[in-house]
């Protein structure tokens, strides 16, 4: 699957479409993408761990970036389903890293998997799979 | 399944444990619970719809409230998995409502389903199922 | 959502397309469908319970019947994802019942939920949600 | 995660516990297990493809084998949830291969992922994640 968007274009797109996001685009490569998220105090759960919704949100962005990196910056692509398994407690003082790889990129549906890590740790903290519906009009591609 | 926590106790617990949350507890009843979430500008996606992570976060809180309403205010209960299907675009100017019912409340695992709605609408915007791991020490129960 | 196939038509379709199936169509109604499956010795797991795959297979058929009852007998509709939570042990000597309701019937995607029961029991044994991809050519409809 | 059961012991266990199964155990290794399933006529769907339930059943067995290869031959371990994404049509004339790796092996819960392939093909036909509940009494281990 060919990459059609650079890391810089994707970062600019996210900043413009989601001005409030704290997710950074770390890498866009042929075999997958990497995003990262700084943890703030507000995102910690009782016990000093990162909240589940923060992990779900990063998984969703990771899938979005992976899909858009292959189909172009189409803001109308939407998540249709997401399944996540929480595996271990993330560390409170590390960035959360999401690595996403697409399993399938069809004409109307893309499916991908995301591994989430606390930065620098080997064991994943969560694993998600998600499905994206791809708008049918390829002319909806946005240029940055 | 007997309710062991009142709506007021649950609301106080959420405010204390998650001071930053904007979720309100609307009802705690024998057959399920209801939570609501005000949508802010920052949570809207391109196209004026509510972002997926906002819906996932509300589904997660709904499950948490449903489980705690039956087992008591045990802050150590953790989500182990969540599966969500996004069905329709939520309205940008309505509160998001989550109705959760437990399917199973075992000794170590609880399973529930959540229907999400834009307030006042009949058709759901999303449906989630989730699993909660229940800490084994029942003496960990917190009193408010 | 209007029903466009009768119970008898659906039963004949399943017999023809899946000659080996032991699933019977019990009801096709405006708010959902009901299918049933006789349990044989070969489908029991150690401990005398029904195997997980038997439940998954019935959930899949239930979704298929629900979708086809609304879009017509289109053999090309395919499951794209299925998520199942196993809740209780089914009884070994009862039929397995599947009740399916569609949450969404879009142009290219249908989403439904299935509750599975041991016949005559009130508590469900499993809950599944699934997604069906609908072929784009509505002229592919088969007449029985 | 250490392997505590050999391929031969696992194969003998499956034959005894599930005399009707056509799944063979191909490999049990430190980083995962491989199982295979011969496709019969009865398992084909309209259009000559392998039915979804056959894939779900193989994913379930793959998870079961992966868990038991690490915890010993405990027949009481039960699947608590399974999520599967169907990616491509399996070939009708090839064995179905399942490769499973555990993401987490906790005291009471194991989580794994399974990739399914048509034998000899590079692209996966399905991807599943599943959760197993592990019985608490480790003395329930069965010796072959």
Automatic annotation (TrEMBL), chains A, B, C, D:
Highest rank taxon of the organism: Bacteria
Domain Thioesterase: 47-123
Signal peptide as annotated in the record: none
Name listed for the protein in its UniProt record: PaaI family thioesterase
Protein keywords: Hydrolase
């Amino acid at each position: 699957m060919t990459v059609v968007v650079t890391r810089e274009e994707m970062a600019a797109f996210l900043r413009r479409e989601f001005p409030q996001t704290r997710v950074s685009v770390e890498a866009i490569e042929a075999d997958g993408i990497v995003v990262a998220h700084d943890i703030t105090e507000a995102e910690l759960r009782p016990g000093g761990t990162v909240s589940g919704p923060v992990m779900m949100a990063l998984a969703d962005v990771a899938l979005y970036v992976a899909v858009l990196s292959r189909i172009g910056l189409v803001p109308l692509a939407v998540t249709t389903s997401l399944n996540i398994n929480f595996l271990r407690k993330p560390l409170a003082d590390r960035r959360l890293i999401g690595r996403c790889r697409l399993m399938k990129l069809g004409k109307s549906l893309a499916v991908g998997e995301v591994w989430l890590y606390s930065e620098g740790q080997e064991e994943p903290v969560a694993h998600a799979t998600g499905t994206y519906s791809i708008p049918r009009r390829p002319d909806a591609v946005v240029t940055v």
